[in-house]
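Re: the request from the purification team.
They wanted to know what the chain is likely to look like in 3D before they choose a buffer screen. I agreed to run a prediction and write the result into the notebook, where they can find it.
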Amino acid sequence: MSTTDEGAAAGVDFKLEVVVIPVADVDRAKAFYESLGWRLDADFATGEDFRVVQFTPTGSLASIIFGTGLTAAAPGSTDALVLDTVSEIENLTTGMGRKIWQKISLLRDAPRA
């Protein structure tokens, strides 16, 4: 649907709440998002086959979840997903933005199993 289309969605205030990220190593992913300073909202398991970890970026209304038994998608298959945006591009080159991009570069360049 284009932004000019009218119809069933007209007048509805849509919001993105959560994005599921398929990961191979839940504890490594958790450590990564903790290192970014994102808020840990949940980390619970109901057995060996199900675990949910939820993080919310600082100032964001949307969260990410990952874990065990959440999705059949292959780890690393979420490619080029923008998880957070900034109102000014300068924010990407200072403070938290710089830290995030350094970590993403490290993960991108790491050998994959």
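For the purification team: Residues 18-109 form a domain with the 2,3-Dihydroxybiphenyl 1,2-Dioxygenase; domain 1 fold (CATH 3.10.180.10).
Please add any questions underneath this entry.
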